[in-house]
Amino acid sequence: MALHSPQSKGHIERSATRQWYAVQTYSGYEEAVARYLRQRVESLAMGDKIFQVLVPKEKKVRVKGGRRTTVEEKIYPGYVLVDMILTEDSWYVVRNTPRVTGFVGPDNTTPTPLSREEVENLLSRSDKEEGRVSLDLQVGDLVKITDGPFKEYDGKVAEVNEEKGSIKVLVPIFGRDTAVELDSLQVRKV
Q1: What is the three-state SS of the chain?
Q2: Which tens digit of pLDDT belongs to each residue from 127-177?
Q3: Which of 42, 46, 129, 165 is the most exposed place for a label (fewest CB within 10 A)?
């Protein structure tokens, strides 16, 4: 039984090769789309054409309220990646999954495969164990130092190093600003 739709004729260039495609979804529904699509692949026995469904995410360390937490953040909100062999049937299954708005391509229905470099980059970002620190501080923000030898001093952020999770704060000492390097957990925004 063919699953193609009459409207899909001519849109799909058949491919005998397995490639990754980006599928656009309603923002915030990426996980649901991935789940629906996996269920459809299983129930319609499409496992020989649709192999993997992935919501690309990376781990980031957030510092907020003086606490560090690791969160998984979507790399491309509103998109799901699908590893598949493109045929009329596989296109139809993906395209007609609830909350899918289309494939990434010239007209949102004609799928354009991702390049090997794009896929490798996304997969390597998703596989990283530790993300970089994302601070809710910017240069120029006023802060209060909450720990260390300069505890209770007020200062102004002069530099933010998200990779290290550290900041440089200008602290008035003896009538002039002195740069002090601190861990981001040692300050709070004023």
Answers
A1: CCCCCHHHCCCCCCCCCEEEEEEEECCCCHHHHHHHHHHHHHHCCCCCCEEEEECCEEEEEEEECCEEEEEEEECCCCEEEEEEECCHHHHHHHHCCCCEEEECCCCCCCCCECCHHHHHHHHHHHHCCCCCEEECCCCCCEEEECCCCCCCCEEEEEEEECCCCEEEEEEEECCEEEEEEEEHHHEEEC
A2: 765 555 566 888 999 999 988 888 899 999 999 987 777 899 999 988 899
A3: 129
**Which residues on adjacent β-strands are paired with residue 18?**
85
Domains and CATH numbers, the chain: 12-131 (3.30.70.940), 136-189 (2.30.30.30)
The confidence band for 1, taking pLDDT boundaries of 50, 70 and 90, is very low
Distance CA 57, CA 124 (A): 10
CB 163 within 8 A of CB 133: yes
The tokens for 81 are 């990646």
